[in-house]
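Sequence and structure are kept together here, with a separate record for every protein. An example record follows, reproduced without changes.
>
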Amino acid sequence: MNAIIQISPAVHALLSGTFGDNGLPMPFVKEIFLIECHIAGTAYKNAAEIEATLLPNDLLILHREPTNEHDKFAIAISDRTGNVLGYIPRAHNEILARLMDVGKFIFAKIETKEWHHTWLKITVRIYLRD
């Protein structure tokens, strides 16, 4: 059978750095909890349209935006299908951005979500894969 298997960006990102050059699992790879925070900017995104697809423990992908005109340490957060949910709050992003800039793999998992009028508050836990 010659079928090509599609791997979602979330799975690819999670597996990135897990295997060595020889294709074997790298020893001692672990997820290190760094911080818990909310996702900033969800009020400006299409949160109402995708809220039902966001579940606790869902993997979220972090993307550095070093050329962001509002914040040079900006880190966007997207779901497994590529929808940008918002950003790591400015108060928490500098150290995470510096880690990402030197090649560390940082990702998030949804902890909780709740509506506050028109704002979807999504709390995430940020991890370093090392």
User: Anything to note?
Assistant: The first strand starts at residue 31 and ends at 38. The chain is about 20% helix and 35% strand.
